[in-house]
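Table 4 source record.
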Amino acid sequence: MSEIKAVVLAAGKGTRMQSESNHMPKVLREACGKPLLYHVLTQLDFIDQKNTVLVVGYLHELVEQAFPGYPTALQEPQMGTGHAVQCAKELLKDFDGTVLVCYGDMPLVRKEVYESLLREHAASGAQCTLLSGTCEEYLPYGRVLMDADNNFIGVVEDRDCTEEQKKIRDLNVGIYAFDCKALLEALDKLQNNNAQNEYYLTDAPALIQAAGGKVKVYKAVLNEQIIGVNTPEQLAQTEQFLRQQGRA
């Protein structure tokens, strides 16, 4: 397997979790007494700390103080997930291996899932492998479109899904393994011609495929692992699942 770097998206404010008494960045919110980002980085401990880039933004000094020793890239202003990874380009430009992109507010994803995705990516020879997960509860995630042979077609956001597409159980988790050079080329091509005027990383796989690259989908049954923390209710739910996983 080639050398691996991780880019962990950790710039968000967590607007729905802000209160008069607590203005902490979302990734510093605690579950079972530890920041959300701590739980994520614990599951990424098979990647060297110096190769794990934190993309920080809102009150970034607090995140940097809480996790010293990690290289950081500053995302200000915050203009989408694609823009977040673009902010880490300077730390990736001379790298020739695999880049794992994941989220600092998804603490339930287990190490084995990251490792399996990376193994699948290395074995397939793809330039991009995206993680697709199924979940018993409804989550407003994009759907991964595939043909009858499980070849990647594209990703359609939840709000843009037809009624038929909403029945698709393969959710785009937002976790990817990229060939670094293919990722950097795709980042340069991202457009923000959408309602939010943001640059979406979800567009990168299609751009890589359009440029002649190979895109694979790694499908897994993930259930609660793909719950992101966006509300106080999801934070409480996450604590409960961390205890069930024996990670409290």
